[in-house]
Each structure stands twice: as C-alpha cells, then as structure tokens.
Design brief:
Length: 443
C-alpha cells in the first residue's frame, strides 16, 4: 500500500506541475486535470486490500466505486452551482443588466476604479460567495476595461478581494460554511474578530497593485456603449435585480429548505430563464434567438468545468489514502502549541490543494475543546477560517474564485505566480499579524 500511496502522490505532483507549466507545455490544464484524476483513482483501485485486507472477493472494488460516487456527488454539487451561477451572470450580461453596475462604478481614473472594484468585491463576496462574486465582477470589468493588460491586474485583485471578503462571513466561502455548520465558529465571532484581518489582507495587496495602474482610461476605449437588444431600461433593471438578487437569495434558500446550494441556483436560473423568455416574446426573431438562454448555454466555459472536476476528484484520492490527514498530524507534532504557525502553513497548503478537503481533514483530526485555542471561536478555528480562505489567493488555482477567473480571463499560472503571488502572501501575513494584535490586546 505504501508503494501505491507514493505512486498516487507522484502522479498528483506531476499533474500539478504540468498544470503550473501550461504556458510552456501549451496543453490545456483541463486535459491534464482529467488525466491526473483518472490516474490517481486507477492506482487506488489496483490494491485489493486497501480497505479490507482480509477480503479478496471483489467487495473492495465495490467499496471503492461507492467512494467514487460519494466524491462525485460532492463535486457535482459544486459544478452545478458553478454552471448555474455562470449562466445567470451570462444572461444578465448579454441582456444589458450589468450596465447599471457599470454606470455606477464608471470613472476615467484607473486607480479610483481599482479601489471601487476592491471594496465592492470584498463586501459582495461576504453576502453572496467568493465564487459568484468573482464571476459578476469579471463581467462588469469586461465592460469597464478594454485593455487586457490592465484587466489582468483588476482580475487578480478580484481574486484577492473575493477570498478575503469570503473569509470573515459564515456564508462567504465553502470552508467557513463547513466550520460554521459544525459549530466551531459563530457568526458573531468571525464578524468581530476576522473582519479586520480580512480587510487588511485585501487593502495591503490593493495598495501595492495600485502602482501598476497609472493614468486614465482613453475616452474612446473606456466604457463603450453596449449594443443592448430591444429591452427597455426597466426590463434590463428587472433582469439585473432578479439575477443578482436571486444569487443573494441562495444562502437564504439553503437555510430555509436545507437543500444543497446548487438547488437554489437552479431555482434562480429557472425563474430568470422564464422571465427572459416572456420579455423576448415581443422582440424580433433574430434578437430573440441570439439572447435566449438556450443559446447562451453554449457560451459556458466547459473547459473550466472539466478542470474543476479533475482537480476535485484527484484531491479526493489524497483525502481517501490519508495523505492530507497525515500532513495535518505532522504539522501538529512539528509545531505543537503554536497554532499561528500551524494555521499559517495550512493556509499556504490551501493555495496548492483544494481547501475544502484540507479543512475537512483538520475538522476530523482536531477535537473541539471546552476551552482554549480549540474551543468554539478559539484561536485555531478562527485562524483556520481566515487562513484557508485568504491563503487560496496565493496561487491562481488555490481557490474556486481563482479557477473561475483563470478560465474567464485566460490567466496563466505562471503570470499569476510571478506578478501576484508575493503580493497576496504579504497581505496574508499582514492579516495574521493584525489577528495576533487583536487577540493580544483586545480579546
């Protein structure tokens, strides 16, 4: 088993390296992620005694298939949520719904726009989630910034701001939702103690990035007039508020019904689809066919979906063979008692592998205590919420928001690592320092 574990880790590392070198190999990262996923699961299936060493009658194979279906179900929920959110945003965008946001944020100053984007993304991601917020903000930026070089800087800031904003809200990130549902953090606790560190983790990178944006936009390039179908201003605003308001309603829907978040997304998509069909009833046939949801579905970036599927399922193998848990236990032994270092390293690791199984492994490994750092709203759990969320900004594939922005704006792993990683890391450390000061002086 030890040999197979090593082989699985090697396959994952080689695949990850190829994804990181996509700009060099010219091979789409989605293809590598799918090969990595199948390779890891195939190696896991080869050991007949992985789960039940004394059984060799095929029950192990059956059990592995059940495990695959379990992880596929978890991944499918994330993928359907992503596809639904991307479709909703595409509907709003194609029918002129984001013109309202565009006109609200418009300015000729590149730096003023940067700060407006940073703060709007930060607070919006706490209300919605960092994934949905990133999609919305990228669509808005496409209308505000025509220069690709400038838009990449803004897009990187969107990733950082979305992850920072999601960290201080119990519904802003998948990991905070997990910790919140388990009861190791409370709404009041994260809002009062994580808000300021999260804000600093966004402000510091924004302050550094502003020096990459100099001057003003050209009048003819910035804020082009969009050619928006035949909808009235009222209809466009209706589409906007239904889309964005519906996304805001998804966490409420989950709380009320206890259904998975993707069900709420499908509800909003169905409602928005119906309304746009009604609005298109009196438009010309050419315009109707160009803007209907059935046509817009073809614009969804399926390569990003496939990449997400491959990454989630490959990391699931590492979770099954106990690599992530063993890593957490090793950290605990090496840095016993220093929860700032342990959580900080976990945050760095969350930029390399998916933070969801990483946090899940920590939740299963560390027991909840009645008092001390492991208590509810204790130092460890709050730092884990902050580090797992904000730490994902250090690499473009370290968070769901980063993966989506990577797909939408075609950002390469190498460009982000060269230009942005160190900036995000500085903000990450600044937030941890602020949390330490708050804990030492106030709490």
């Amino acid at each position: 088993m030890a040999t197979l574990t090593v082989l699985i880790v090697i396959v994952f590392c080689v695949g990850y390296l190829c994804i990181a070198l996509e700009s060099v190999t010219k091979i789409n990262k989605a293809a590598i992620a799918l090969l990595m996923c199948v390779g890891c699961w195939t190696l896991l299936m080869l050991d007949p005694g992985f789960y039940y060493p004394a059984v060799g009658d095929g029950s192990v194979t059956h059990h592995v298939l059940e495990v695959i279906e379990h992880h596929l179900g978890d991944a499918a929920g994330t993928l359907f949520f992503l596809m639904g959110a991307m479709t909703i945003v595409e509907i709003v965008d194609s029918n002129g719904g984001f013109n309202f946001v565009r006109d609200t944020m418009k300015t000729r100053s590149k730096r003023k726009l940067m700060w407006r984007v940073a703060f709007m993304t930060f607070f919006l991601s706490a209300i919605l989630d960092n994934l949905t917020t990133s999609i919305v903000m990228i669509m808005v930026l496409r209308k505000l910034v025509q220069s690709r070089g400038d838009r990449l800087i803004y897009a990187a800031l969107v990733v950082i701001s979305a992850n920072s904003g999601g960290a201080f809200s119990p519904i802003g990130d998948v990991t905070t939702i997990m910790l919140w549902i388990k009861g190791v953090i409370t709404t009041q606790g994260v809002l009062t103690e994580i808000f300021l560190p999260s804000l600093v983790s966004m402000l510091v990178p924004a302050f550094i990035l502003q020096y990459s944006l100099i001057g003003k936009f050209d009048k003819n390039q910035n804020l082009p007039k969009a050619d928006v179908s035949q909808f009235t201003k009222g209809q466009r605003n209706t589409i906007f508020w239904l889309g964005v308001g519906g996304l805001c309603f998804v966490p409420v829907f989950k709380t009320i019904t206890h259904l998975p978040p993707f069900m709420g997304i499908l509800l909003v998509l169905g409602l928005l689809w119906t309304v746009t069909e009604i609005f298109h009833y009196n438009t010309s046939e050419d315009d109707t066919m160009a803007k209907r949801v059935s046509d817009l579905l073809s614009k969804i970036d399926l390569s990003t979906i496939m990449f997400f599927l491959g990454i989630l399922m490959a990391v699931a193998v590492l979770q099954e063979i106990g690599v992530l848990t063993a890593l957490g236990e090793g950290l605990n032994e090496a840095f016993s008692g220093n929860y700032y270092v342990i959580s900080g390293i976990i945050g760095v690791l969350s930029s390399i592998v998916d933070n969801v199984p990483l946090v899940a492994g920590c939740m299963g490994m560390y027991p909840v205590a009645e008092a001390g750092p492991m208590a509810v709203d204790g130092i460890f759990w709050q730092l884990l919420a902050y580090c797992a969320g904000v730490g994902g900004s250090m690499l473009i594939i370290g968070s769901a928001a980063g993966v989506v922005v990577m797909g939408l704006e075609k950002i390469t792993f190498g460009w982000y690592m060269k230009k942005i990683t160190w900036i995000a890391f500085v903000g990450y450390l600044a937030g941890i320092l602020v949390y330490w000061l708050l804990r030492s002086l106030l709490f």
